[in-house]
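User: I'm curious whether this sequence folds into something compact or stays loose and floppy. Could you predict its structure so I can see for myself?
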Amino acid sequence: MHIPIMNLLKKIKLDYNIKLFNDLIANKNFDQAYQLIVNLKKKNELEFFLLLKNIVDKISDLPSDFFKQKIIWTVSYDITDLSFINKFINFYIPKNYSGSFQNKNYTNSLSEYLSRSKIKIENQSLIFKDFVEYSNLYQNLLLFDKKCDFLFLETCASFFETSNNKFFTNPNICFCYFYIATNPETLFLRYKKQFNSTEGSFNEMFNFNSDLFLNSEQDNNDIKVYENRTNININKKSWTDPNVVNTFKGKIINYDDLLINTEEALLEIIFHLKQYGFDMDVNVEDIKEFISKNKIEDNYKNELSNKEKKFLEKNLDEEIPAF
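Assistant: Here's the prediction. I'll summarize afterward.
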């Protein structure tokens, strides 16, 4: 990421804002420090960006209460497997929660924000190395931009942790997450139909070319934001790792449970949110109404050939059964 060239006046303003923020934090005036960022964003988007970039590591170590808004992640290897629960979130929460929320795609939102704000980006794109360095900054940019209590963000990226303690997301801004785990056989049959090719399906699952994922909704945006989906093995293991689940309050939901035990699976989503303080009502009748209006279908009932079964079994990690 290129930082915009600053003239002397901008540099003086930045240094002043950094000192003011640090003084407020040192005196534990957290609300005033938070409001300083909010006010600066209203006043000048570039000055807001420069301040946030310079203090984002510091605010990562502040108490969780400093953050007035939180991110709730919905994650799956195939982004389309999130459509049902995203519809549920958009249907159920407005009926049973009095606060504010938004439900967005992570990289599309970041692409839109960066394109709109005219912040200079190298090669007009963000790739994995950028997220390793600036993931915390990107997510805080969106939190301050969206202005809601809870920001639901969907992603297909794999969770990462670096040797110098940089993570895909930060515990202070991550309220919790949901990972939808889809049966590999289902994914294979879906991709085989999509690409009309066994080889194409296997490449989509195992990413033999190590391609990054780009959502097609960004086609008309100035800045493209790629996701490091990796492959089905790494993706699933990264989000189902017990340490990640415990630290970031994860809930693993099998896609088959959404198909077979839909009401129970949706109730588990509600209870998981309430467990960590999302103050909303439990209304079974609303769940039943949603299910009656939004059927979740399983359209992949074809049989795999013995060769295809053997290939899946060979390439899937032991922790990820094929069938």
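Summary: The radius of gyration is 21 Å. The mean pLDDT is 92.
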